[in-house]
Design brief:
The complex is a heterodimer.
Chain A (H helix, E strand, L loop, with lengths): L1 H30 L5 H13 L22 E2 L4 E2 H10 L11
Antiparallel strand pairs in A: 1-2
Helix pairs in contact in A: 1-2
Chain B lengths: L1 H22 L12 H4 L5 H5 L6 H4 L1 H21 L10 H7 L1
Classes of the chains: A mainly alpha, B mainly alpha.
């Protein structure tokens, strides 16, 4: 199950990368106050026509090992449980238990 | 007082415009809405798309070949025992349907 979600997320990431430039362009055009209103509206429609999965907000940082969506650290790309596991075994470089 | 403040203001505006002209900045002294805010951000698409590492089980030829061999040897073992997949039209459902 975790892999299915990861595959979906990967698909969304690829789409977002593919449509990124276009998206930015349409958004910038539709928010420019100097342009005439119908041009702005046309670009707004074009922005809405893009596939939904090409939005960056739909992408979630899942854990690479387990697929957990919550409490995933961006620095290691793993969830807190796997992080604790790996760090205790010493597999993460430069990570040790804090005490001061 | 007013004259001095007006002069100071003019000087500041002049300095700002000169700076923008030299370095190529986009000025917006009135603070109106502008599309420059969206256009100046960098692209993040590549970084986003490279979150998941490559799957060794599907892309390394050695690993793939080894798995394929294991599957074939397992199939052979089952066939030797007589437990392999039946011929077409002999399975349980196919036989029931044909009868």
């Amino acid at each position: 199950m975790s892999d299915k979600r990861n595959i979906q997320d990967q698909k969304r990431r690829l789409l977002a990368e593919k449509y990124e430039l276009r998206r930015k362009l349409y958004k910038a055009f539709s928010k420019d106050t100097d342009l005439p209103n119908d041009v702005r509206e046309k670009h707004r429609c074009k922005l809405a026509d893009l596939p939904r999965n090409s939005s960056f907000t739909r992408v979630t940082n899942r854990c690479v090992f387990t697929g957990r969506a919550r409490s995933v650290y961006q620095m290691f790309r793993v969830s807190r449980i796997v992080f604790r596991d790996l760090a205790s075994r010493g597999l993460l470089h430069g990570v040790k238990k804090a005490s001061w | 007082m007013s004259l001095r403040s007006m002069l100071a203001q003019a000087a500041v505006i002049g300095v700002n415009e000169a700076r923008a002209k030299i370095f190529g900045h986009v000025l917006n002294p009135t603070g109106q809405r502008s599309a420059h805010k969206i256009l100046r951000k960098k692209f993040i698409g590549e970084k986003v798309a490279s979150w998941y590492p490559d799957n060794i089980h599907k892309e390394d030829p050695l690993v793939v070949a080894r798995k394929e061999q294991e599957r074939l040897s397992k199939l052979e073992m089952l066939k030797r025992r007589g437990k392999g997949p039946p011929k077409k039209g002999q399975g349980k459902r196919a036989a029931k349907r044909s009868k």
